[in-house]
Structures are given as structure tokens and as C-alpha cells.
From TrEMBL:
This is MarR family transcriptional regulator. One of its GO terms (molecular function) is DNA-binding transcription factor activity. It comes from Paenibacillus pectinilyticus. Keywords: DNA-binding. SMART domains: HTH_MARR (SM00347). One of its GO terms (biological process) is response to stress. Transmembrane segments: none annotated. InterPro entries: HTH_MarR-typ, MarR/SlyA-like, WH-like_DNA-bd_sf, WH_DNA-bd_sf. It comes from the Bacteria. Residues 12-146 form the HTH marR-type domain. The lineage of its organism: Bacteria, Bacillati, Bacillota, Bacilli, Bacillales.
């Protein structure tokens, strides 16, 4: 059976299902590595990316953050709610537009962001340690094609 499977190209469904399973497994490994490196469980990779975007902007509207990250406004709201609860950021009203909300980091956030960035880099290396540089290049090119 393996020989007939190898002779025919895989279906799009088979490839996509394997990609989804693999992505889930890699994400779990990545989060486990972050935890083992002392990053609090509430500070997931996506939440760190939110904090980094706010850090780079200084102050940013929630709508601008959603656009910058390419995610839906309600997703930003979920991230912000969680990060505000952990005292990593604050919301302030826009004096010029009562519907808009500005986000800003708290004083405790920058040090944790720095630690999380270093841990994310190390965790990434650990997750992809078995993939040689040329394999990484090929994978990157395939993902960019998708």
C-alpha cells in the first residue's frame, strides 16, 4: 500500500490535515519550552506579539493594533482583556474619539517582554533543532507560497 501511496500525489486534504496537526504539535512544543524557560503561562507567543507591537508603537489604538497584527478586533479585545488582567498593559480613552481606546504598556511589561523575546528565540531553536538550515529555507519558501 505504501508504494501505491508514494506513486500518487497526496491530496490537498491530506496535506492540509498534516499541516494542521503539525502546526498544533509545534505550537504545543513551543509553549512548553517557553514555560520551561520561566515565562508565565498567561504570556503565550501570540500575547507576546501583541505586547511587542504595543511596545514598538508606544501607544496604539486597539483598531490599529488589530490591523497591524492582521487579526480581528474581537481577538485583540480578548488578548487585551487577558493582558490587562495580568497588569501588562492599560487602556485609556481617546479624548478625540470616545469610541476609540488607546493601549499602553505598564512599567512591569518591558522587562518581561525582553525575557520573553529571548525565551521565544531559544524555544524556536529547540523546536526546529532537527531541521537543518536548508530545510528551514525550503519550509519558509513553501509557507510563503501558501
Amino acid at each position: 500500500m505504501a508504494s501505491s501511496h508514494a506513486a500518487s500525489p497526496p491530496s490537498a486534504g491530506d496535506v492540509l490535515q498534516l499541516l494542521i496537526r503539525t502546526t498544533h504539535r509545534l505550537h504545543t512544543q513551543f509553549e512548553d519550552h517557553l514555560s520551561s524557560l520561566g515565562i508565565p503561562a498567561y504570556l503565550t507567543g501570540p500575547r507576546v506579539r501583541v505586547l511587542i507591537a504595543i511596545e514598538e508603537a508606544g501607544t496604539i489604538r486597539m483598531s490599529e493594533l488589530a490591523q497591524k497584527l492582521g487579526i480581528k478586533a474581537r481577538t485583540v479585545t480578548q488578548f487585551v482583556d487577558a493582558l490587562e488582567q495580568e497588569k501588562m498593559l492599560t487602556r485609556t480613552s481617546d479624548p478625540d474619539d470616545r469610541r476609540a481606546t488607546f493601549l499602553q504598556l505598564t512599567e512591569i511589561a518591558p522587562a518581561l517582554i525582553t525575557k520573553a523575546r529571548a525565551a521565544m528565540s531559544l524555544a524556536s531553536e529547540q523546536v526546529l533543532q532537527d531541521l537543518p538550515p536548508e530545510g528551514r529555507r525550503q519550509l519558509l519558501n513553501l509557507l510563503l507560497t501558501l
